[in-house]
Amino acid sequence: MKIMKKSDILGGDTISYIVVFGKAQGLAIAKGGQDVFTIMDQYCMNPICDCDEAVLIFNEIATDVEFAIRLSLTKKRYETLDVFGVSEQQVDQIVKEELKDNEVMNLLRQRYQDMKLAGQESLKKATEKAKQAKQLLEQKPKRNEPCTCGSGKKYKKCCGMNEGTTR
Questions:
Q1: What is the domain extent for residue 116?
Q2: Cα separation of 123 and 113, whole Å?
Q3: Residue (of 44, 46, 40, 49) closest to 69 by Cα position
Q4: Which of 36, 115, 138, 152 is deepest in the core (most CB within 10 A)?
Q5: Domains in the chain: how many in total?
Q6: Which of 93, 91, 87, 69 lies closest to 79 in space, CA to CA?
Q7: 3-class SS at 130?
Q8: What's the CATH number where 10 sits?
Q9: CB-based burial of residue 8 (10 Å sphere; 0-12 exposed, 13-18 middle, 19+ buried)?
Q10: For the chain, what percent of residues have pLDDT higher than 90?
Q11: Is 6 helix (H, G, I), strand (E, B) or coil?
Q12: 3-class DSSP state for residue 36?
């Protein structure tokens, strides 16, 4: 699994399942008459977002036909986002045919859960890295170590010289 940037996850954009997991297995294939479409599925990875949507990009293999929809995974309702080389009626027919298959919907729901968990894991790792970096910055050097200011002097003879004195 690819670890995503915190800004990508919290930004609200959808991210492709293949980009995160690097595998296309189980990816849905829709058949619109004689045309065969691959479906690229994208999801919100923000674990605190309660959206239930997937963005599906249908791409016909042999031609330049492409369209995208935003699908509610609970209500099975969708809106068309983009259409190229196909009519709205054809989009409606292809999508309705594809969504009547419960296996496809179950696969999309499972991938949605996988993406939310991956987002949670990525955010956790990013937080841990930030904490480690902060700890490194906050660590005070020992008396006889080189000073962190880069002067070349020992810490006790440079920036640590006035430590512990009160006026």
A1: 6-131
A2: 15
A3: 40
A4: 115
A5: 1
A6: 69
A7: helix
A8: 3.30.500
A9: middle
A10: 31
A11: helix
A12: strand
Tell me whether residue 148 is in a domain.
no
Residues 2, 14: Cα–Cα separation, whole Å: 15
Residues in the chain: 167
Structure tokens at 160: 């640590």
Question: For the chain, what is the mean pLDDT?
Answer: 84
> DSSP per residue over 79-113, as a string?
EEEEEESS-HHHHHHHHHHHHT-HHHHHHHHHHHH
Q: What is the pTM of this model?
A: 0.72
Please say if the pLDDT value at position 29 is more than 90: no
Tens digits of per-residue pLDDT, 81-138? 999 998 999 899 888 888 887 888 899 999 999 999 999 998 888 778 777 777 766 6
Residue 25 lies in a domain: yes
Residue 141 counted as domain residue: no
